[in-house]
Amino acid sequence: IEYLSSYLKDKGIEVAIYDLNIQDKNDLERMVGDYRPDITGISVRNIDDSCFATQESFMGDIRALVSRAKSAAPKAPVVLGGVGFSIIPKEVLSFSGADIGLWGDGEEGMCELALYGKKPERPSFLNLRDFSPSRGHIDNRFYFASGGMAGIEASRGCNRECVYCADPLAKGRKVRFRSSDSVASEIEQLLGMGIDHLHTCDCEFNLMNDHALSVCNTIIARGLGSRVHWYAYCVIDGFDERIAEAMKRAGCEGINFGVDHTDDGILRFYRRRHRLEDIQKAVGACRKAGIRVMLDLLLGAPGESIDTLKKVLDDTKSLGPTRVGVSYGIRVYPGTVFCGYLMATVHKVPQDLLRPYFYIEPAISRDIDGYVLERVQGDALFLFNSREHPEKNYNYNSNEVLTRAISEEGYRGAFWDVLYRKYQDKCRASPPQAD
How many whole angstroms separate alpha carbon 256 and alpha carbon 234? Predict the structure, then answer.
């Protein structure tokens, strides 16, 4: 939302942000009414928690917020946007009761609406090359003090073919890259606020290795690598010691690789480009560079079996990562290849995919929770989602250890890494017990 605000202000458009995380939720009507906006925009980051175990929808809250915004400023159209909206735009717009939706990047579309009252005819995708947003529009210090990290975007869009993923629907398949100088300047702004823990918001940081290396080298050249701690999502294929070393020197602490699986057949179905040997290479490169590694699994695809479950859990454990995140159940989004596959194979897909709907291979759907739980329970390497034990879920809901580590003990960083370091510190603090 700071990127959007910065872009609009550069075009001479007045912007005010009402932050529901900070400002009094009960004061929304008065503040919006006093401001009297010409347009009321609502950013929708997620429509649900994307977790099979909990399946929590946020659409009721979004609809209620739209209603409150309309009552506060009846003459101002309510415009929805954001990644969550852009995944299922028509359905979200209809359910919410908003007037207009902006599918895709919001910067140019909101500008057209504000300056000319013109509705964009198609999704717009901003040229990010020299986009240099200001980071002074929201209270970043509040979020950092509360345990959050500042998000930063070096690229937008994804050109991968993963059958289940909604990122290309929301952000476009054409990858647009920011200049390394603009990324480094944004980091300098945040460091000036005392915010030194960041997370990339790119679909994948290394979609083009030359660009990732350029960003890292610019951070290093400006002397920022020793001052900042950051985390990234990365793809496995093409990741090597050269990029790992550059990321480490630029201040990278940890990388989350969405590996999904290690079985060749399931990886082919997912249309993933990597195989087990590529994961081994990437994890080895990170360990050599001193970067902590999270491997994320997505289990339950067509063809999944007890044998493939055993293989992927054994494989990932043997690779020696810092953490392994275990999720099962594929969230089905309209417009994805996977949704088309299910409909073509006479699988009953609900017409209303606005509510969370997940697929698990029917042959193991009854056994997967117990089997995974039996194999990973008690092993600190694994973070997992369980429908039988929602209080332990890897979407971090109600994780008291994490909450205390952040609020009482000052831990910062990616949540999986906070939990890892908390566990490591606890082990070091506890002397071995005599038999």
Answer: 6
